[in-house]
Amino acid sequence: MGRITLDKVTKSFGEVNVIPPLDLTINDGEFVVFVGPSGCGKSTLLRLIAGLEDVTSGQIRIDGKDATQQAPAQRGLAMVFQSYALYPHMSVRKNIAFPMKMAGVPEDEQKRRIDSAAAALNLTDYLDRRPGQLSGGQRQRVAIGRAIVREPSAFLFDEPLSNLDAALRVGMRLEIMELHKRLATTMIYVTHDQVEAMTMADKIVVLRAGNIEQVGSPLELYHTPRNEFVAGFIGSPKMNIFGGNPAQQHGATKIGIRPEHIAASTETGTWSGVVGVAEHLGSDTFLHVHETGLAETVTVRVDGELPVRHGDRIFLSPDESKLHRFSEQGLRA
Amino acid sequence: MATQHSRAAARLMISPAVLLLLGWMIVPLVMTLYFSFLRYNLLMPGMEEFTGWTNYRFFLTDPAFFDALGNTLLLVGGVLLITVIGGTLLALLLDQPFWGQGVVRIMVIAPFFVMPTVSALVWKNMFMNPVNGLFGHFAHFLGLEPYDFLSQAPLASIIFIVSWQWLPFATLILLTALQSLDQEQLEAAEMDGASALSRFYYIMVPHLSRAITVVILIQTIFLLSIFAEILVTTAGGPGTASTNLTYLIYVQSLLQFDVGGGSAGGVVAIILANIVAIFLMRMIGKNLDA
């Protein structure tokens, strides 16, 4: 009840081709995250699935039925918008009731669903307030509540957490994941934040310029990125990627090594460099090492206690088994 | 920082401006009040004497007063109804993307720049005149008898002319309000299964309520004192069929030379305008609260 298939879907705005032919299957109950840099077409793709934009060609099937020409409301999907898009003149209760009112759900059934959604989302005390009187996190929960009561076959989230502050974002992230476990409904989630993608997804779809670069579980993407773009995009801090001599020694045009797979030492190592900025997180320290002859900056994760200072010489040794090799086309070799 | 001292200094320094404005308002008001208690006729100069409430009694018992009162309310109400409904529909239309949008928007606003006397004369002579007017010619073309708008339906004709002038104002304000509506709200409503009509009723109308309030309040101020359109088209006639309060006061003081009676009418008009204002604020003022 929530299997969405995109079959050679394209989208152009006038002359500009935003989505080239694209195939994708989202299975029932999956939590799928669309991730990519700004302007990669991930929101457009979500809006195509929602029906808020018309596809230029191709087919969208929901549970096997062709939904390409269906109006948004008929597709049985619910969407949570980045700006929450709550109706400011209605109370929280009326906001949540609105989709049921439009669908002609009986009053007592409406009340039952509102009460259960409000209880699940901790909104019971706020039902008679207006959205303007709520905090960002509460508004977000109202928007989710409005989506839940429709009992949709899939939820669509369009960067729902980007307007929240960092602490609240982590909390809401957990709440959404909890909700997914409880409802077991398909969820499609758009974000540009790869940390959100890694922590929440069953399946990540990495997009660039409308193209799917790779589809896979978070760890698949982390361990075996299909190309240089995915390698650089997934992981925080970014993977170190460099070409030249050291790459050729490993038989590749370019090689990539994650900061956490480089060992640092003050005495010996494969490469040497000068310590620049150190970012102390307590558990770890990220060192930005310069003058290595590899790239302008190499990021290294070291133990929080390593006694190095700005300007010190440091030696780096990559874990050879964790090295990623890329061909000339940027593909994984 | 506004200390006690600097605040006192600020008050001292703005006081000349406040006093000037106060005097500007008080002097004419007091003079009108004073004249309204005088027997003061321009045909009998130098014969002014205090008459108490006589002017008020004459003005308020004049059958023309009740006609004028009804006409004023009809005029204000009719024009408000037409401009708010028509303005909303036009704003919805102009909010759609179409070719030549910029030019059309300017053309829609144009009537507002035509001065009232001119627009009323244009309507009177070029459209509504049964002999030379376009409507007369059109009626001839259909083989019908031309309709003499300004003598058969004088008040309705004036309401129409004034609406034509004020429709752009309402359209403009409502259009800007419509453009400030968050598109995601409309999309959310669409996802929620609201039809175009429900989206208009549940999302757009509440969003427009504040702008509509502003339109109603501002227009009421100006519509209560409509004068030029009546003077150049019907001169208040036939009889008192298109006389409003403003025009009645003009007739009283400048055509009948009765300054005292006109002043009494002015004071009555002030009181009535305030009653209308109180009613309006009671009814729709809550829309202005954030």
Structure at a glance:
The complex is a heterodimer of chains A (333) and B (290). With 333 residues, chain A is α+β, with helices and mostly antiparallel strands. Chain A has helices spanning 42-50, 92-103, 107-120, 136-148, 166-183, 194-200, 218-223, 228-233, 244-249, and strands at residues 4-13, 16-26, 31-35, 57-62, 65-66, 77-80, 154-158, 186-191, 203-208, 211-216, 240-242, 254-257, 262-265, 271-280, 284-290, 298-303, 313-318, 324-326.
Question: Could you explain how this protein is built, in words?
Answer:
Chain B: Residues 69-280 form the ABC transmembrane type-1 domain. Chain B: InterPro entries: MetI-like, MetI-like_sf. Chain B: Keywords: Cell membrane, Membrane, Transmembrane, Transmembrane helix, Transport. Chain B: It is a multi-pass membrane protein. Chain B: This is Sorbitol ABC transporter membrane protein/mannitol ABC transporter membrane protein. The complex is a heterodimer of chains A (333) and B (290). By secondary structure, chain A is of the alpha+beta class. Chain A has two domains: 4-232, P-loop containing nucleotide triphosphate hydrolases (Rossmann fold); 240-326, OB fold (Dihydrolipoamide Acetyltransferase, E2P) (Beta Barrel). Chain A is built from nine helices and 18 strands. Chain A has a six-stranded mixed sheet, with helices on both faces. Chain A has a five-stranded antiparallel sheet with strand order 13-17-14-15-16, with no helix packed on it. In chain A, strands 2-1-4-5 form a four-stranded antiparallel sheet, with helices on one face. In chain A, 40% of the residues are buried. The mean pLDDT of chain A is 88. By secondary structure, chain B is an all-alpha fold. Chain B has a single domain (54-288), classed as Orthogonal Bundle (MetI-like fold). In chain B, 74% of the residues lie in helices and 1% in strands. Chain B has helices at 4-36, 54-61, 63-95, 101-109, 116-128, 134-141, 149-152, 154-179, 183-191, 196-223, 228-233, 245-255, 259-284; strands spanning 38-39, 49-50. In chain B, helix 2 crosses helix 13 (259-284) and helix 3 (63-95) runs parallel beside helix 8. The longest helix of chain B is centred in the first third of the chain and has 33 residues, at 4-36. Chain B starts with a helix and ends in a 6-residue tail after the last helix. The mean pLDDT of chain B is 88. At the A-B interface, strand 6 and helix 2 of A face helix 9 and helix 10 of B.
